[in-house]
Amino acid sequence: MNARLAFLSKHPDHSLWVARHDGRVIGFLGLQIRHNVEAPSDYGEVSSIVVSERWRRKGVGQLLLTHAESLARKHGCIGLWLVSSFGREADAHKFYENAGLSKTGFRFVKPF
Asked: With pLDDT > 70 as the criterion, what percentage of the chain qualifies?
C-alpha cells in the first residue's frame, strides 16, 4: 500500500477516499480525472471502488459513487466512467446500472 500511495502522490489527477464506520474502513474509492484526446473535455474515472462484504447493500457504494460524481463535477468533468470485469453482472454491474451508469463498450488489453 505504501508503494501505491507513493506512486499516486506523484499524480495530482488521482485521489483516494475511504468510507469509515466507528474508525474502521468499510469502503474505498479511487478517482482519476481523465483528459480526453478525442474532444477537449475531462471525465472522472472511478479507478477503484470496493465495499467490505459486510457493508454491501447498505448505501456505502452509492455514497462513494455520489462522492466521485461530486468531485468530477467540481473538476468540470462532463461525465463519470469506470471499468468492470466480466463475471460481475449479477452484483457489481447491476449496482452500476442502478446508479445511472450504462454499458458503452468493451476494454481491450494487451499485457506486456
From this structure: 99
